[in-house]
């Protein structure tokens, strides 16, 4: 029996290299709407969060609501950029193949919408690793990360106890959510400094380092 019964992957920034694209699009769109935002501020404030958090923070800071069609416009721009630019995170195909070879089940649990997850996984050739039953979105639960609901749902659907799950995350909100769910969490510090992923069981900066940490 391995150390973990299931490995739960975040999607954006862990499986697919989407954070540079989506944060660039978000910063440009918010700036266009009169909420000046740099790429760095977008990464700091919004990376790893569900879209409702963007609405909440903008309202809190500016006293103004984002337009009703914000989500549709934002997602449309992100999908369009994904279709031309998105790639898998380097080394992730090999990590999934190793888990397959070792007979360790895995799934994806993402703050993104079901549509966004599928667009990303299909474009990067990762969709075949997962299949429909192993994709979980913040849309499936009432509260996104940092609440533990999404990770607890993934464990339940995968038929394992939370403490038998390892989560792979690259955002502070995701690490908090995994800890709140009672799961070990491995912090992928490629775009986020290690110190912002506090509480993680271990940190790594290159995907090929992950299998050794999990075994």
TrEMBL record:
Q: Which cofactor does it need?
A: Mg(2+)
Keyword annotations for this protein, in alphabetical order, are:
Hydrolase, Magnesium, Metal-binding
Q: Which GO terms describe its molecular function?
A: hydrolase activity; metal ion binding
Family membership noted in the UniProt record: Belongs to the HAD-like hydrolase superfamily. CbbY/CbbZ/Gph/YieH family.
Q: Which PANTHER family match?
A: 6-PHOSPHOGLUCONATE PHOSPHATASE
Q: Quote the protein name from its UniProt record.
A: HAD family hydrolase
Organism of origin is: Streptomyces bathyalis
Taxon lineage: Bacteria, Bacillati, Actinomycetota, Actinomycetes, Kitasatosporales
């Amino acid at each position: 029996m391995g150390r973990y019964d299931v490995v739960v992957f975040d999607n954006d920034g862990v499986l697919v290299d989407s954070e540079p694209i989506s944060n660039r699009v978000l910063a440009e769109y918010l700036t266009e709407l009169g909420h000046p935002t740099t790429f760095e501020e977008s990464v700091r404030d919004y990376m790893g969060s569900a879209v409702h958090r963007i609405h909440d923070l903008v309202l809190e800071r500016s006293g103004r609501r984002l337009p009703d069609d914000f989500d549709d416009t934002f997602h449309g721009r992100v999908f369009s950029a994904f279709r031309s630019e998105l790639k898998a995170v380097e080394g992730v195909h090999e990590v999934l193949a190793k888990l397959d070879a070792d007979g360790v089940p895995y799934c994806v649990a993402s703050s993104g919408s079901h549509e966004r997850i599928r667009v990303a996984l299909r474009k990067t050739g990762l969709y075949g690793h997962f299949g429909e039953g192993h994709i979980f979105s913040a849309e499936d639960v009432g509260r996104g990360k940092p609440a533990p609901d999404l990770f607890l749902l993934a464990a339940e659907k995968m038929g394992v106890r939370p403490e038998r799950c390892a989560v792979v995350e690259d955002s502070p909100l995701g690490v908090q959510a995994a800890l709140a769910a009672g799961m070990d969490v491995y912090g992928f510090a490629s775009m986020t400094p290690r110190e912002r992923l506090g509480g993680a069981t271990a940190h790594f900066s290159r995907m090929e380092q992950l299998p050794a940490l999990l075994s």
